[in-house]
């Protein structure tokens, strides 16, 4: 997940929101969980699906 610790927590959610929007370079943001060049709703859904 975004913080790299193999568990999903509030810290990952904060990283995702702080990186919200287009990535400067595709694959550059750890919060771009679906690797589409943007941190958006689909990444939030991936995060929630793996929460725990």
Polypeptide structure, described:
The chain has 52 residues and is mainly α. The chain has one domain (10-49). The protein is 35% helix and 8% strand. It has helices spanning 10-18, 41-49, and strands spanning 21-22, 38-39. The longest helix is centred in the N-terminal third of the chain and has 9 residues, at 10-18. The chain is globular and about 30 Å long. The mean pLDDT is 92.
Largest sheet: 2 strands, antiparallel
Question: Taking strands numbered 1, 2, ... along the chain, how are they ordered across the largest sheet?
Answer: 1-2
> Would you tell me the structural class of the helices and strands?
mainly alpha
Query: How many helices?
Result: 2
- Helix and strand sequence: HEEH
Q: Return the average pLDDT rounded to an integer.
A: 92
Give the total of beta strands. 2
Helix content: 25-40%
Shape: globular
Distance between the termini: 11 Å
**Would you identify the regions where 5 or more consecutive residues have pLDDT less than 50?**
none
**Percent of sequence in beta strands:** 5-15%
Q: In the residues, how many domains can be counted? A: 1
Quick recap of the structure?
With 52 residues, the chain is mostly helical.
Secondary structure elements and pairings:
Layout: H1 10-18, E1 21-22, E2 38-39, H2 41-49
Antiparallel strand pairs: 1-2
Which features does this protein show?
52 residues, mainly alpha, globular, 8% strand
């Amino acid at each position: 997940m975004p913080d790299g610790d193999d568990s999903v927590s509030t810290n990952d959610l904060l990283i995702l929101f702080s990186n919200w929007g287009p990535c400067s370079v595709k694959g550059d943001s750890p919060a771009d969980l679906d690797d589409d060049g943007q941190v958006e709703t689909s990444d939030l859904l991936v995060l929630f699906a793996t929460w725990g």
